[in-house]
Amino acid sequence: MEPEGSYVQDDPHVRLMMAGSTLRKVKSRSWKKQRHFRLLEDGLTIWYKSRWAGKGHSTFSVMDVEAVREGHQSEVMLSIAEEFPAELCFTLVFHGRQGNLDLVADSPEEAQAWIQGVRKLIHKAQTMDEQERQDQWVRDWFQKADKNKDGKMNFKEVKKLLKMMNVEMNEDNALHLFTMADKCESGSLEIEQFVHFYQMLTQRDEVWKVFQDYSGDGERLTLEELETFLRLEQGEGDQSSQHAQQLIQRYEPSETAVKESSMSLEGFQMYLCSQEGSVFNPALLELQQDMNQPLSHYFISSSHNTYLLEDQLRGQSSLEAYIQALKRGCRCVEVDCWDGSDGEPVVYHGHTLTSKILFRDIISTLKEYAFKVSDFPVIVSLENHCGVEQQTVMATHLRQILGEMLLTAPLDGQIPHMLPSPQELRGKILLKAKKIGGLETHLDETLTDEVSDEDETANGDAESPSAEDPPAETTNKKSKLSRELSDLVVYCKSVHFHGFEHARSQAKCYEMSSFSESKAKKLAKDAGSEFIRCNARQLCRTYPSGLRTDSSNYNPQDMWNVGCQIVALNFQTAGLEMDLNDGRFRQNGCCGYVLKPDFMRDADSSFSPDRPEDRPGYKPARLSIQVISAQQLPKVNQKEGSIVDPLVRVEIYGVPQDQTKEETGHINNNGFNPVWNETLNFIVHSPELALVRFVVEDHDKTSRNDFIGQFTLPFTCIQPGYRHIHLLSKDGTAIPPSSVFVNVNVSELT
């Protein structure tokens, strides 16, 4: 494959980027500094430094950039809008939780060159196949290590580079391969020769062994042999013959082999490393569930205190936090409103030092970003601390800014007996808040505009840690509601929870309660089945304890086990709980709605998470995972000469009986191609609810193991057979080419 540079150099925008530009980097209204930016020769790395600083510089890869926004499209840019015209401004938005880079060019032409240039490079990076991506990764390392920039490396430098890449190898073997790659016998390798050397070094024995098991001549797989492999190992049954032909067309690099309908070892390895060879069944990544059931029949990806980027006491409140949550498929966001000083309601974490943002700016952000990744409805959970006047201002903003997007009346004008479906509510924003009366009493003018203030606080701890407002005194306070705001609440009326008996006999389907994690856990423990039945008909929201001022999270699985739909998490905090949330919602087109198992959608269900074996249709599964090897794990510790000692752990999250974990031993000093060949076995009682999390850690006998990478998916989305698990960072972003190679077997427990 040609070097990356040659494709892009012909583009005028990219040429300007390579020549370099002085751009202003902006962090706030008062922090604006000039930096020199340029695109390096690899066509993928952007380098920048201060014009007067000595040696210090920074770099980032185009692969890390998710999008380029033009003009004043970030809070920082809006704050300097009067100083710099929109045509000079642009914002680079990164994957994961990394902050934006806001830049101002000297001329509109220069801004356009960077905007269009970066977009072209992102597109190029996204359309690479696995092999190109792997080769590019190797080239990036070569560029990083080629200190004198002569484009060559001798054996000593190559050894040093392999160490940086986390590669431990036998020196004689490496020298032998080095000599083979050094075609001109010059004693050094140029970049493309190094890519070839690296390919030879990474030929994988364990893949070769599987290949040998099915190849008659040891050189290639005929069409029939590949079909047999797909049928016996990959569990593909009838479709294996048609699929075998497609795989050869898609992954076989040798044209001769394609003509003969056969597959070489290279093609076989590329297939196993592709998305089709992934542990996640690609068909289930698409939107494929029934979206016509009532809202209460779905798990809904939900965020808590969405406005915060950091902790709950003095963190930054930000519109970017809403954009990031919506980008991750979140469908329920929280807005914490307080009276602002100039008649404009503000959003922040009350009684704390977190910064404030305008309510109307959040609603404008919602309008722009709500339906970028999913068409299905967004619920705005309003925690309202405003007086009547500013509540009316909020109602005006909601109507004026959102227009048709805002749902303001029942769909067909009828009083609903069950909630509408995500399909019927596509493109709509729903308000969750208190309401004067119900939908039935909409025309009754005699209703008082006072509602009991007891609902949030009496259902657990209040969400805002307000010192001067101890819950004991708030239980019977009355607060006034603005009728304009109340009228905008249709299918999500916040009410106090009076027990399951009351919910069954009295509650309307559009009424919903919120529970703190401790209250929800107690209800789940004391009355799991009743909670499930109640959640088949009504929505319910759970939220983290007010004591989690560090924005930590609770385990959402405990809430999903009893059918809670809106399990609100601090999206800004990476870790196990967000891995589980991302894993749960990775299926079904990442649309933020996942259909609950059938036994949780039945209002007469007898299912109890504590006794899964009692339900009709109980089908436990046996899961067997042979952990074979891992590839190119990232270094955890950047100290010179340190190499990881990896182990793999498989964790199951589900009903209480299914919560378990097993791990392999650790392999000393090999993050490059460790081989375990260890089998881990599990019995899963409620496969329909379970999540499987694969974690790789760096073993440390004196302190806690360091996290290397993870991947989480629903049990029902697992593809059996020889599969690769493509690892994600702590932040949930991809870390190619790191992967774990496994052989997965799923069977019914008899």
TrEMBL record:
Coiled coil: none annotated. GO terms for biological process: intracellular signal transduction; lipid catabolic process. Residues 443-480 are annotated as: Disordered. Keywords: Calcium, Cytoplasm, Endoplasmic reticulum, Hydrolase, Lipid degradation, Lipid metabolism, Membrane, Metal-binding, Nucleus, Repeat, Transducer. Its cofactor is Ca(2+). Pfam families: C2 (PF00168), EF-hand_1 (PF00036), EF-hand_like (PF09279), PH (PF00169), PI-PLC-X (PF00388), PI-PLC-Y (PF00387). Residues 446-458 have a biased composition (Acidic residues). GO terms for molecular function: calcium ion binding; phosphatidylinositol phospholipase C activity; phosphatidylinositol-4,5-bisphosphate phospholipase C activity. Gene3D superfamilies: C2 domain, EF-hand, Phosphatidylinositol (PI) phosphodiesterase, Pleckstrin-homology domain (PH domain)/Phosphotyrosine-binding domain (PTB). It catalyses: a 1,2-diacyl-sn-glycero-3-phospho-(1D-myo-inositol) + H2O = 1D-myo-inositol 1-phosphate + a 1,2-diacyl-sn-glycerol + H(+); a 1,2-diacyl-sn-glycero-3-phospho-(1D-myo-inositol-4,5-bisphosphate) + H2O = 1D-myo-inositol 1,4,5-trisphosphate + a 1,2-diacyl-sn-glycerol + H(+). It comes from the Eukaryota. It is a peripheral membrane protein. Its main location: cytoplasm. Binds 3 Ca(2+) ions per subunit. Two of the Ca(2+) ions are bound to the C2 domain. GO terms for cellular component: endoplasmic reticulum; nucleus; plasma membrane. Its EC number is 3.1.4.11. Residues 15-123 form the PH domain. Ca(2+) 4 binds at I643, D645, N669. It is found in: Cytoplasm; Endoplasmic reticulum; Membrane; Nucleus. The active site is at H304, H349. Residues 133-168 form the EF-hand domain. This is Phosphoinositide phospholipase C.
